[in-house]
Amino acid sequence: MCNSRALVLLALFLQSLVALVSAQGSNATAQWQTLSGDAPLVIAHGGFSGLFPDSSYAAYSLALITSLPNVQLWCDVQLTKDEAGICFRDLRLDNSSSITNQFEKGQKEYPVNGVRTKGWFAVDYTLKQLADVVVTQGVYSRTNKFDGNLYSFLTIDDVATQFKPPGLWLNVQHDIFYNQHNLSMRNFIISASRRVVISYISSPEVGFLRSIKGRISPKTKLVFRFLTQDEIEPSTNQTYGSLLKNLTFIKTFASGILVPKFYIWPEVNLYLEPQTSLVSDAHKEKLEVFASEFMNDYPLSYNYSYDPIAEYLNFIETGGFSVDGVLSDFPITPSEAIDCFAHLGKNARGQAKPLVISQYGASGDYPSCTNLAYENAIADGVDVIDCPVQMSKDGTPFCFSSINLIDSTTVAQSPFSSRTRSIPQIKAGTGIFTFSLTWDEIQTLTPSISSPFSDFTLFRNPRNKNSGKFLTLSEFLNMTKNVSSLSVLISIEHAGYLAEEQNLGVTDAVLSALSKASFAEQKVFIQSSNSSVLAKFQGKENYKLVYRIEEKISDIDASSLDDIKKFASSVVVNKDSVFPETELFLTGTTNVVKKLQSSNLSVYVETFNNEFVSQPWDFFSDATVEINSYVMGANIDGVITPFPKTAARYKKNQCLGRGSKIPAYMSPVQPDSLIQLITTPYLPPAEAPNPVLTEQDVTEPPLPSVSSTPPASSPGGSAAAPPPKSPNAQPKVAASSFLLTMATLLAALSLF
After folding, report:
1. Measured distance CA(96)–CA(481) in Å, rounded
2. Cα separation of 42 and 331, whole Å?
3. 4 Cβ contact partners less than 8 Å away, ≥ 6 residues apart
4. Where do runs of H (alpha helix) occur along 317-462?
5. How far apart are CA 656 and CA 660, in angstroms?
6. Do 294 and 287 meet the contact criterion of CB atoms below 8 Å apart?
7. Which of 444, 416, 339, 320 is nearest to 664 (CA)?
8. How confident is the model over 700-719, as pLDDT tens digits?
9. DSSP alpha helices (H): ranges in 134-214?
């Protein structure tokens, strides 16, 4: 039985979205290349199973609220001993339920399609016996925090009567297995079709579909489900690959086919191969085509840059065809793709305000700060393109993501590996720093793409991991200054150390390069976490000065606000300073954005990565949902991202032009709503709030002057660490706990 508290909280969670349901649309005015000409269907696989346990009350409820109005609720039908039909993804109950706790000795071994299979099976229990068994999260990489809500099994009749879905899709995967146990799936489905409205019935067994054809309502469509091409279809003894070549035969008993997405867009090493002709071939036979295996939290083809909406668009529009529906664990995402981002056109106008600011160019697809990263960021539609300025040993300013060359080059494997140094006031550990090599030496280095989530085997574009070349600041300015719609952001860090210890004047070098480039001053942002750096640019030109607060903060006191206003017009803050989180659950909203904007300071937020492991569960492993929640929910002024294409497309989102009729799948998430659905034993531990930014954190000493005689230094050796300074002072050591937190969470999930 479901936890009553969970149901009440779930109702409250959904209530904030209910008012928007009637406003949902389906981009109906556009011409679709589906068989019917209508928009593709969204089929919610076990409901919203990407977050809640598959086929649970919560999963079906959330799917209805966050999807297109004609969403189909998918139910994998399993039969109990007393011929009740329950919705459960797997033939074996032990993978995603608590049955092993209730029936410790219930394991059996049965042949399933000729393979001896051990587990707990529904055929051994009556529905009454299963009353105390609850469904749980069966995908270990997904959160198990909702397992304590005691969601019970739902029957087909439960789903039909409790949710009254716009469409019910039943999938029958193992008719032959049930026949072997003297249970007739055929009779059950025929009987169920007389009690409830069934829109679609799918099965990978030809014999089953042929046995029910003509015996159910003509309004119910039969769909043949293809498994992998080398598997054997049991009733014909042919491979699914062979059956794919005979669509005329499929048409004799089905009106559509359901295929893994790789049947349409094959992949090799996570790169797309040329598309097949399957969709057009099937449409010629008047067969609808539905594609499956869509999951936001599974590595996508590198062609999609970890952006699930880009994948859906490739199946419904940009590939030159449209499937008739998609089967997804995250139905909010195809709903967005179909209604908000399909048919935008090249000249679509922006509907959202935020500036799209690159992080090292399009560094999600190319090595940071290379010509390719910058060229692609511009092509992707970035508004502000960034150059973090570093200094070479001979005083050449150039664009590079870090003062440590190890971060984005192969310098550690180069002849310069002996120049490793330890400089605690810059970073913990050792590094090979930009000021240890001349510009000519740096130009010989091979770029290396950054993959910040490689610990989760999520890598960025391996084919181009060493592509491109580095640019001097002057080359960067010349590349960008003639793009009329583009602004540039020059980021300066470690200026104090460079001046005092290396006799390198980075601020003077930047001013000189900007003067020589004759760059339009209204298009230049100067950014630093050191207020003294920004003070050097005050009064010289009409540059826009941006103060970067690196630390996660919970608030800003009045004195620090007053100080920031004296030297900056914009502020960069961390995402956690807007929506704090604990173990990847949002815990609320701070007043940081409101306070900064009330002082006429624009707020830019970093960093919006596309990789799903970077996003709290509240954003459904969907980068667009995350961006939308910060823009529409927190009213930020800009997003900083290594994937500018995703953010630039978001600005053209046609759903945002509907005023009060914005659909639920494009409404911002409510921070702390999900964590309220977690029962006490599963709650993550409370964490201390982030600190408040104070005047002491903002105030910095003046930058030291650069002497005419360079100080003596050697490529090797260590530098002594100075006493620690305030959080934003130079020098400092940057630290991040995100990967540690995520690794800890996944390690915990793996125990279940």
Report:
1. 56
2. 6
3. none
4. 332-336, 371-380, 439-443
5. 9
6. no
7. 339
8. 999 998 876 544 443 444 34
9. 156-158, 175-180, 185-195, 206-212
